[in-house]
Amino acid sequence: MIVPLPTLDYQSADAPQQFALSLQHSGFAILRHCPVDHELVAHTYQDWQTFFEGDDKVHYTFDPKIQVGYYPFQTEQAKGHTTPDLKEFFHIYEGHPLPRGIGDATWNLFDQLKQLAIELLTWIEAQAPLSIRSDFTEPLDTMIADSKETLFRLLHYPPLPDTIPPGAIRAAAHEDINLITLLPAATGMGLELLDAEGQWQSVKCDRGDIVVNVGDMLQLASQGFYRSTTHRVVNPDGPARHQSRLSMPLFLHPRPEVVLADGKTARQYLQERLREIGLV
Ligand SMILES: O=C(O)CCC(=O)C(=O)O
Ligand SMILES: [Fe+2]
Question: Using a 6 Å CB cutoff, which residues line ligand 1?
Fold first, then answer.
């Protein structure tokens, strides 16, 4: 039986416990009433919708050395997949300029999400058993607080083409590489997670909710106490086929020199994983 993911109230007294339980069980949690401005989310989506609809984007084509910029439609394929995903996206990192026409909302949202992530990492740490916590090489929140590696990915899944390459979906099944991911509710359905029984479950959330998921780096650092769960974005049916979908995950990455486990640094781990998905 599929038990849907609960939506948790960030402001409730037991939010830290409920949040950590959800991450242990499914690798995902849905939070409502977070200190993230809904207007800012809407504004950011508007700016990037305009960007992806325009012709200017090709002038920002990504620089593979620094992984910044615009990745055209069907550039990325998930680990172990041969068909590229039906998506285009833009990678931004702190300190790098945004495309013309993108206003302050994007950086303001980045800052609000990062502050929230810092707090959520203190919850994640406090809720882990001492035997797990004591092996963290430093507090989880300081791993990311001054990091310049955190990646904001603005994603656009265009309306589906008339002919879809066999096996191609909006985002093929994958796990995130980083510590945790914060995902403001996307503009459309489609996100699914693979639950412990091997069933795909739709991640249902409302506008304004924040979805949080565990990445491989946290799974590694917590010796599997927190699970990094496989997820994907499926192609819609019916009229939604003709609609685009936007989403904007913030991938929280530690400073490169942070040791995750067994002497392995975040830098070493990230390079291994990027090679696997063909991004370096
Ligand atoms: O678009 C989404 O809802 C999720 C995207 C995702 O999982 C990713 O980019 O890693
Ligand atoms: Fe992901």
Answer: 153, 155, 171, 176, 183, 186, 191, 231, 233, 247, 249
If you ran DSSP here, which 8-state letter would residue 139 be given? -
DSSP states of 35-80 = SS-HHHHHHHHHHHHHHHHSSGGGGGB-BTTTTBEEE-TT----TT
**Regarding the domain delimited by 9-277, which CATH topology (the fold level of the hierarchy) does it fall under?**
Jelly Rolls (2.60.120)
Q: Ligand 1 centre and the CA of 232: distance in Å?
A: 7
The token duo for 9 is: 């109230």
The burial class, CB within 10 Å (0-12 / 13-18 / 19+), for 73 is middle
Complex prediction ipTM: 0.99
What are the pLDDT digits (tens) for 53-90?
999 999 999 988 888 899 999 776 666 777 889 999 99
Q: Distance between CA atoms of 206 and 40, rounded to whole angstroms?
A: 16
Element (H, E) at 17: helix 15-26
Q: Position of tokens 């550039």? A: 75
pTM for this prediction: 0.96
Pairing label, strands 88-93, 151-157: antiparallel
